[in-house]
Amino acid sequence: MPPIIDKDKCKKCGLCAQICGLDVYGPYEKDTVPIVRYPSECWHCNACVLDCPAKAIKLKLPLSMPILYRRLKGEDND
Amino acid sequence: MIDVKKHIIESDVLVVGGGIGGLMAAIAAADGGADVIVAEKSDTRRSGSGATGNDHFTCYIPEVHQCGIEVILEELNNSLVGGNADPYIQLKFLSRSFEVVQDWNKWGINMQPHGEWEFNGHAYPGRKRIFLKYDGYNQKEVLTKEALKRNVRIVNKTPVTDFLTYNGRIVGAIGIDITKEEPEIVIFKAKAVISATGNTSRLYPSITPSQLFNTGHCPNNTGAGRAAAYRAGAKLINLEIPNTHAGPKYFERCGKATWIGVISDVMGNSIGPFVDKPTKELGDITADVWHSVFTDKMQDGTGPVYMNCTETSKEDMDYMLWGLKCEGDTSLIDALDDAGVSLKRDMVEFTKYEPILVGRGIEIDEFGRTSVDGLYSAGDEVGNFRCDISGAAVMGRFAGEHASGYVKDVNNDGIDLFSHKTVLEAQKFYSRLYENKGSSTWEEFNHGIQSILDDYAGIRYVRSKTLLESGLEYLDHLEQKAKNELIVNNSHELMRALECFVLLQIGRLICLTALERKETRGMHKRSDYPFTNPLLNKKFLTIRRLENGKNELEWRDMRIN
Prior knowledge:
The complex is a heterodimer of chains A (78) and B (561). Chain A has 78 residues and is mostly loops. Chain A has helices at 15-19, 47-51, and strands at residues 4-5, 57-58, 69-71. Chain A has a single domain (1-78), classed as Alpha-Beta Plaits, CATH 3.30.70. Chain A is elongated. Chain A starts with a strand and ends in a 7-residue tail after the last strand. Chain B has helices at residues 20-31, 62-65, 69-78, 87-107, 139-149, 224-231, 286-289, 293-299, 314-327, 330-339, 388-406, 421-435, 442-456, 465-485, 491-516, and strands at 9-16, 36-39, 56-58, 131-133, 153-155, 160-166, 169-177, 184-195, 236-237, 246-248, 262-264, 306-308, 346-352, 361-362, 375-377, 539-545, 551-557. Chain B has three domains: 9-243 and 356-409, 3-Layer(bba) Sandwich (FAD/NAD(P)-binding domain); 246-352; 421-531, Fumarate reductase/succinate dehydrogenase flavoprotein-like, C-terminal domain (Methane Monooxygenase Hydroxylase, Chain G, domain 1, Up-down Bundle), CATH 1.20.58. In chain B, strands 1, 2, 5, 6, 7, 8 and 15 form a seven-stranded mixed beta sheet that branches. Chain B has 15 helices and 17 strands. At the A-B interface, helix 2 and strand 3 of A face helix 10, strand 13 and helix 15 of B. Strand 3 of chain A pairs antiparallel with strand 13 of chain B, so a sheet runs across the interface.
């Protein structure tokens, strides 16, 4: 479920759509909140999150890409 | 028909791909006095496998290493980027690696983040360390600025799809403008072309097969330069030896050596022989040496295998998290946080990723020249040299330097590219796809290619004459169906569809070269030739397309000098 744009924070500059390495936004229409047209093509590289001047973008990994981990140590062993 | 833009973009040197190799080539060519264009598929500020950063740069600094260059070369060949390379190129790379490091530092990429030349990670105990730790989070932005300062013109969002030759020499390239819904074909005219399109991802199913773009290296890199160079008559090399990376499961990310932990079993015990306690100086090189550790342990039931940072000191843990940011892995840090992972207590499962082509591709000489006059190559798409980001940076410079001299004696006047056979054929083929009344998507096509390569020319099963020949036939069937049945709605989808035809072509070349290598070597496992043939040690296999359309496969010796 990549990337998610907070429409209230977005300044409609289009930088995310311009710099995206995977073109997930497609052609950008000036002065609009970018549309994530190709969400399944996100690399989850965070470029748009890092570069957004309004900090309006978040990435969320799809459920099909969970991080797998196991707890080795309890709180007490810290 | 898809329109061809009326304006031809002309330059002395055309750089195809604005990654690390491409930008360094462009900077060097401009410094050499050439007029330079970079054609980039997305935007050079954030494109390619180095998009958001990197933290290790292979480098030889005599005053730090206090040894001869041969010692460092040996360590290089024992590392994850070693093997399958010509030592004469590796030596030239090492001899000028520090010069590039110093330039990057001067330009604003912090190569001494702790005030000294610091070599850490990917290292064997008691041996020289060759990976310079640096903070590369801004490397693409800095290199883009340096290129622009030298009046390099950057044409973003224009994937190059073919190279143009005239009397056996390169004269340009064509690409697709994807800035608008309607695709347009763009013609570039140049006296030299430097191809730097990176690795080839998306050939095999990712560790989460439903997610085509879950790849460690950039999934936008699908081998355009390799395929175009092959069609132009250039030799490709070392395609048949599979290469895999490893990292967190199920979120594919590079940066294995940035982790400061121990490759462990489920009880937290070290699996490899190199380290028991994690340190930033060494990391744990086990997975670089024992590539199949993750799958071996799954197959024998003693897995899973984990990256265990629970014994990492606080100082080293902070260093690791800082390193992951330098490496560009901020999304991985976010994902770990989002999952509630505490690296002090939790072990993260690691796995082997699907094969990709890096250090398998276009054959070059020490100046980055290919076997086609005027065509150069640099970076991950080169087949007889590999050093990832540092290799792209240094070899990109070599290619740019040489190309800027080469173009001084070339004259392209009078060559009409609008009527060039390759342009006309491309226009016809792209228009056919665009005007198809089919209903199959490029994603289906890509999945189909992945299934065939995985089963018949991959590492999941063995390879054999019957499997590889079957795979070749199945690829042909799929290609014919795709030509007739694909639906392409806009410029973006045309780009993706053309990527798939490139992937299929490269898959075919993998099958052909794997058939020719009648032995087992590394992850190239032939059931009909289940041994490694010593007579093929230090021998490389090349393939090129002859003018009559047939393939010529040739063996050659590794070049020492």
